[in-house]
Write a structure and sequence with these properties.
The chain has 291 residues and is α/β, with parallel strands linked by helices. It is built from eight helices and 14 strands. The relative contact order is 0.16. Zinc ion (ZN) binds next to helix 4.
Amino acid sequence: MSSESYRFEVGSFECIAISDGTFAYPYPSQNVFINFFVNAPEDRLVRVLRDHNLDIEHWEEYVSPYICLVISKGQRHVLVDTGAGSFAPTTGKLIPHLEAEGISPEDIDIVILTHGHPDHIGGIIDKEGNPAFPHARYVMWKDEWDFWTSEPNLDELKISDHGKGLLIKVAQDNLLPLRDRINLVSHETEIVPGIRVISAPGHTPGHMVVEVISGSDQLLHISDTVLHPIHLEEPEWYSAVAINPHQVVETRSRILDIASKKNVLTLASHFTFPGLGHVVLKEGRWQWQPI
Ligand SMILES: [Zn+2]
Protein backbone atom coordinates (compact mmCIF):
# COMPACT_ATOMS: atom_id res chain seq x y z
CA MET A 1 0.00 0.00 0.00
CA SER A 2 1.40 3.40 -1.02
CA SER A 3 1.58 5.84 1.86
CA GLU A 4 0.61 8.68 -0.46
CA SER A 5 -2.62 7.59 -2.08
CA TYR A 6 -5.07 4.74 -1.76
CA ARG A 7 -7.81 4.07 -4.30
CA PHE A 8 -11.09 2.42 -3.39
CA GLU A 9 -14.67 2.38 -4.62
CA VAL A 10 -17.92 3.32 -2.95
CA GLY A 11 -20.56 1.96 -5.36
CA SER A 12 -20.09 3.95 -8.56
CA PHE A 13 -17.84 6.57 -6.93
CA GLU A 14 -14.07 6.30 -7.40
CA CYS A 15 -12.41 7.46 -4.19
CA ILE A 16 -8.81 8.21 -3.32
CA ALA A 17 -7.51 8.77 0.19
CA ILE A 18 -4.61 11.17 -0.40
CA SER A 19 -1.89 12.09 2.06
CA ASP A 20 -1.02 15.75 2.51
CA GLY A 21 1.98 14.60 4.55
CA THR A 22 2.45 14.21 8.26
CA PHE A 23 3.15 16.41 11.22
CA ALA A 24 5.33 15.40 14.17
CA TYR A 25 3.95 16.70 17.45
CA PRO A 26 6.93 16.71 19.80
CA TYR A 27 6.75 15.04 23.17
CA PRO A 28 7.33 15.74 25.98
CA SER A 29 8.08 19.42 25.28
CA GLN A 30 4.47 20.06 24.27
CA ASN A 31 3.07 17.11 26.13
CA VAL A 32 1.31 15.84 23.04
CA PHE A 33 -0.52 12.97 24.68
CA ILE A 34 -1.83 15.19 27.41
CA ASN A 35 -2.98 17.59 24.66
CA PHE A 36 -4.80 14.82 22.81
CA PHE A 37 -6.54 13.62 25.98
CA VAL A 38 -6.56 16.75 28.04
CA ASN A 39 -9.10 15.63 30.67
CA ALA A 40 -7.88 12.02 31.00
CA PRO A 41 -6.91 10.92 34.53
CA GLU A 42 -3.13 10.54 34.28
CA ASP A 43 -2.78 7.05 35.76
CA ARG A 44 -5.46 5.68 33.46
CA LEU A 45 -3.98 7.52 30.47
CA VAL A 46 -0.56 5.95 31.10
CA ARG A 47 -2.18 2.51 31.23
CA VAL A 48 -4.24 3.01 28.05
CA LEU A 49 -1.22 4.40 26.17
CA ARG A 50 0.78 1.33 27.23
CA ASP A 51 -1.98 -0.91 25.88
CA HIS A 52 -1.47 0.89 22.55
CA ASN A 53 2.31 0.46 22.75
CA LEU A 54 2.76 4.17 23.40
CA ASP A 55 5.13 4.76 26.27
CA ILE A 56 4.52 8.13 27.85
CA GLU A 57 8.00 8.03 29.46
CA HIS A 58 10.10 7.43 26.38
CA TRP A 59 8.12 8.87 23.53
CA GLU A 60 9.77 11.68 21.62
CA GLU A 61 7.12 12.64 19.10
CA TYR A 62 3.77 11.58 17.76
CA VAL A 63 3.55 11.62 13.98
CA SER A 64 0.04 12.42 12.81
CA PRO A 65 -0.99 11.77 9.21
CA TYR A 66 -2.98 14.48 7.41
CA ILE A 67 -5.40 12.72 5.06
CA CYS A 68 -7.61 14.25 2.35
CA LEU A 69 -10.21 12.49 0.20
CA VAL A 70 -11.17 12.76 -3.47
CA ILE A 71 -14.57 11.43 -4.55
CA SER A 72 -14.94 11.18 -8.33
CA LYS A 73 -17.59 10.24 -10.83
CA GLY A 74 -16.47 10.55 -14.47
CA GLN A 75 -14.80 13.93 -14.82
CA ARG A 76 -16.43 15.43 -11.71
CA HIS A 77 -14.16 15.58 -8.68
CA VAL A 78 -15.09 16.50 -5.12
CA LEU A 79 -12.21 17.08 -2.69
CA VAL A 80 -12.73 16.83 1.06
CA ASP A 81 -10.26 19.14 2.87
CA THR A 82 -7.13 20.76 1.48
CA GLY A 83 -4.43 19.66 3.94
CA ALA A 84 -2.13 22.05 5.77
CA GLY A 85 -0.37 23.73 2.84
CA SER A 86 2.94 25.28 3.89
CA PHE A 87 2.16 24.91 7.61
CA ALA A 88 5.23 22.63 8.00
CA PRO A 89 7.96 21.33 5.66
CA THR A 90 6.37 17.86 5.94
CA THR A 91 2.90 19.03 4.80
CA GLY A 92 1.49 20.50 1.59
CA LYS A 93 1.94 17.31 -0.44
CA LEU A 94 -1.71 17.09 -1.50
CA ILE A 95 -1.32 18.65 -4.95
CA PRO A 96 1.73 16.62 -6.07
CA HIS A 97 0.02 13.47 -4.82
CA LEU A 98 -3.19 14.42 -6.70
CA GLU A 99 -1.21 15.05 -9.87
CA ALA A 100 0.48 11.66 -9.51
CA GLU A 101 -3.07 10.20 -9.65
CA GLY A 102 -3.82 12.13 -12.85
CA ILE A 103 -5.95 14.85 -11.24
CA SER A 104 -4.85 18.46 -11.58
CA PRO A 105 -5.98 21.23 -9.18
CA GLU A 106 -8.01 22.72 -12.08
CA ASP A 107 -10.04 19.49 -12.25
CA ILE A 108 -11.50 19.89 -8.76
CA ASP A 109 -15.14 21.07 -8.97
CA ILE A 110 -16.11 21.19 -5.33
CA VAL A 111 -14.07 21.40 -2.12
CA ILE A 112 -15.88 20.39 1.07
CA LEU A 113 -14.17 21.88 4.14
CA THR A 114 -14.99 19.77 7.20
CA HIS A 115 -13.83 22.56 9.51
CA GLY A 116 -11.54 25.58 9.78
CA HIS A 117 -8.42 24.14 11.42
CA PRO A 118 -5.06 24.76 9.67
CA ASP A 119 -4.52 21.10 8.75
CA HIS A 120 -7.81 21.06 6.79
CA ILE A 121 -7.87 24.51 5.17
CA GLY A 122 -4.16 25.45 4.95
CA GLY A 123 -4.01 24.31 1.32
CA ILE A 124 -6.78 26.61 -0.01
CA ILE A 125 -4.35 29.36 -1.00
CA ASP A 126 -1.05 28.48 -2.67
CA LYS A 127 2.39 29.92 -1.85
CA GLU A 128 1.86 32.79 -4.31
CA GLY A 129 -1.40 33.74 -2.62
CA ASN A 130 -3.63 32.37 -5.40
CA PRO A 131 -6.50 29.89 -5.03
CA ALA A 132 -4.93 26.42 -5.20
CA PHE A 133 -8.11 24.97 -6.80
CA PRO A 134 -9.02 27.76 -9.21
CA HIS A 135 -12.28 26.35 -10.60
CA ALA A 136 -13.73 24.96 -7.39
CA ARG A 137 -16.65 26.16 -5.39
CA TYR A 138 -16.39 25.54 -1.67
CA VAL A 139 -18.76 24.21 0.96
CA MET A 140 -18.57 24.84 4.72
CA TRP A 141 -21.00 24.79 7.63
CA LYS A 142 -22.30 28.32 8.23
CA ASP A 143 -21.47 28.30 11.98
CA GLU A 144 -17.88 27.39 11.12
CA TRP A 145 -17.50 30.20 8.61
CA ASP A 146 -19.12 32.73 10.97
CA PHE A 147 -16.87 31.66 13.85
CA TRP A 148 -13.51 31.93 12.08
CA THR A 149 -14.27 34.99 9.93
CA SER A 150 -15.51 37.14 12.82
CA GLU A 151 -13.47 37.48 16.01
CA PRO A 152 -13.15 33.92 17.28
CA ASN A 153 -12.98 33.59 21.03
CA LEU A 154 -10.44 30.85 21.83
CA ASP A 155 -10.10 31.65 25.54
CA GLU A 156 -11.23 28.17 26.57
CA LEU A 157 -8.61 26.29 24.52
CA LYS A 158 -5.83 24.76 26.56
CA ILE A 159 -3.07 25.82 24.18
CA SER A 160 -0.57 28.71 24.09
CA ASP A 161 -1.53 32.23 22.97
CA HIS A 162 0.87 31.73 20.06
CA GLY A 163 -1.06 28.60 19.05
CA LYS A 164 -4.38 30.46 19.29
CA GLY A 165 -3.04 33.30 17.15
CA LEU A 166 -1.85 30.80 14.55
CA LEU A 167 -5.27 29.10 14.35
CA ILE A 168 -6.95 32.46 13.72
CA LYS A 169 -4.35 33.70 11.22
CA VAL A 170 -4.38 30.54 9.08
CA ALA A 171 -8.20 30.47 9.11
CA GLN A 172 -8.59 34.08 8.08
CA ASP A 173 -5.78 34.03 5.48
CA ASN A 174 -7.35 31.03 3.75
CA LEU A 175 -11.08 31.58 4.26
CA LEU A 176 -11.58 35.29 3.63
CA PRO A 177 -10.45 35.09 -0.04
CA LEU A 178 -13.23 32.51 -0.61
CA ARG A 179 -16.04 34.99 0.14
CA ASP A 180 -17.46 34.85 -3.39
CA ARG A 181 -16.99 31.13 -3.90
CA ILE A 182 -18.32 29.58 -0.74
CA ASN A 183 -21.68 27.91 -0.18
CA LEU A 184 -22.62 27.88 3.48
CA VAL A 185 -24.91 25.15 4.74
CA SER A 186 -26.86 25.14 7.98
CA HIS A 187 -28.69 21.83 7.78
CA GLU A 188 -27.94 18.33 6.50
CA THR A 189 -27.43 18.89 2.77
CA GLU A 190 -26.80 16.75 -0.29
CA ILE A 191 -23.93 18.56 -2.03
CA VAL A 192 -24.13 16.41 -5.17
CA PRO A 193 -26.26 13.27 -5.56
CA GLY A 194 -24.82 10.68 -3.16
CA ILE A 195 -22.61 13.07 -1.15
CA ARG A 196 -24.14 14.59 1.96
CA VAL A 197 -22.76 16.72 4.81
CA ILE A 198 -23.94 16.20 8.39
CA SER A 199 -23.44 18.50 11.37
CA ALA A 200 -20.91 17.17 13.92
CA PRO A 201 -20.02 20.15 16.13
CA GLY A 202 -17.77 20.33 19.19
CA HIS A 203 -14.22 19.97 17.87
CA THR A 204 -15.11 23.32 16.24
CA PRO A 205 -18.52 25.07 16.19
CA GLY A 206 -19.42 23.97 12.66
CA HIS A 207 -17.38 20.78 12.27
CA MET A 208 -19.13 18.42 9.86
CA VAL A 209 -18.83 14.87 8.58
CA VAL A 210 -19.36 13.66 5.01
CA GLU A 211 -21.48 10.70 4.00
CA VAL A 212 -21.05 9.06 0.59
CA ILE A 213 -23.74 6.62 -0.55
CA SER A 214 -23.96 4.71 -3.82
CA GLY A 215 -26.21 1.67 -4.16
CA SER A 216 -25.65 -0.44 -1.05
CA ASP A 217 -22.14 0.99 -0.49
CA GLN A 218 -21.42 3.70 2.01
CA LEU A 219 -18.51 5.72 3.37
CA LEU A 220 -18.57 7.96 6.43
CA HIS A 221 -15.77 10.53 6.55
CA ILE A 222 -15.72 11.53 10.23
CA SER A 223 -12.84 14.04 9.90
CA ASP A 224 -11.76 15.12 13.43
CA THR A 225 -14.68 13.65 15.37
CA VAL A 226 -11.85 11.52 16.80
CA LEU A 227 -8.13 12.30 16.50
CA HIS A 228 -6.70 9.01 17.73
CA PRO A 229 -8.14 5.47 17.97
CA ILE A 230 -8.04 5.86 21.77
CA HIS A 231 -10.87 8.42 21.39
CA LEU A 232 -13.15 5.54 20.33
CA GLU A 233 -12.39 3.59 23.47
CA GLU A 234 -12.47 6.65 25.71
CA PRO A 235 -14.97 8.94 23.96
CA GLU A 236 -15.12 11.34 26.93
CA TRP A 237 -11.44 12.25 26.52
CA TYR A 238 -11.21 15.38 24.44
CA SER A 239 -8.26 17.31 23.01
CA ALA A 240 -6.81 20.70 23.96
CA VAL A 241 -8.15 22.22 20.72
CA ALA A 242 -11.77 21.15 21.29
CA ILE A 243 -13.80 24.35 21.24
CA ASN A 244 -16.85 22.82 22.92
CA PRO A 245 -15.78 19.66 24.82
CA HIS A 246 -19.31 18.83 25.95
CA GLN A 247 -20.47 18.81 22.31
CA VAL A 248 -17.42 16.73 21.27
CA VAL A 249 -18.58 13.92 23.52
CA GLU A 250 -22.22 14.16 22.37
CA THR A 251 -21.23 14.26 18.69
CA ARG A 252 -18.87 11.29 19.08
CA SER A 253 -21.53 9.16 20.61
CA ARG A 254 -23.99 10.00 17.78
CA ILE A 255 -21.51 9.58 14.90
CA LEU A 256 -19.73 6.47 16.26
CA ASP A 257 -23.12 4.91 16.91
CA ILE A 258 -24.10 5.42 13.24
CA ALA A 259 -20.73 4.05 12.07
CA SER A 260 -20.81 0.95 14.26
CA LYS A 261 -24.50 0.07 13.87
CA LYS A 262 -24.33 0.23 10.09
CA ASN A 263 -20.80 -1.25 10.03
CA VAL A 264 -20.02 1.47 7.52
CA LEU A 265 -16.57 2.03 6.00
CA THR A 266 -15.18 5.00 7.94
CA LEU A 267 -12.41 7.48 7.23
CA ALA A 268 -10.71 9.43 10.03
CA SER A 269 -8.40 12.29 8.94
CA HIS A 270 -5.58 11.56 11.38
CA PHE A 271 -5.51 7.79 11.74
CA THR A 272 -2.74 5.67 10.23
CA PHE A 273 -2.85 6.14 6.43
CA PRO A 274 -5.19 5.65 4.60
CA GLY A 275 -7.32 6.34 7.68
CA LEU A 276 -9.93 3.78 6.62
CA GLY A 277 -11.54 1.18 8.83
CA HIS A 278 -14.62 0.21 10.80
CA VAL A 279 -15.92 1.24 14.19
CA VAL A 280 -16.83 -1.90 16.09
CA LEU A 281 -18.52 -2.31 19.44
CA LYS A 282 -16.71 -4.79 21.73
CA GLU A 283 -17.84 -5.40 25.29
CA GLY A 284 -19.65 -2.07 25.35
CA ARG A 285 -16.68 -0.07 24.04
CA TRP A 286 -16.01 1.20 20.55
CA GLN A 287 -12.80 0.10 18.87
CA TRP A 288 -11.07 0.94 15.61
CA GLN A 289 -10.54 -1.88 13.14
CA PRO A 290 -8.29 -0.61 10.31
CA ILE A 291 -8.87 -2.10 6.86
ZN1 LIG B 1 -7.38 17.86 11.91
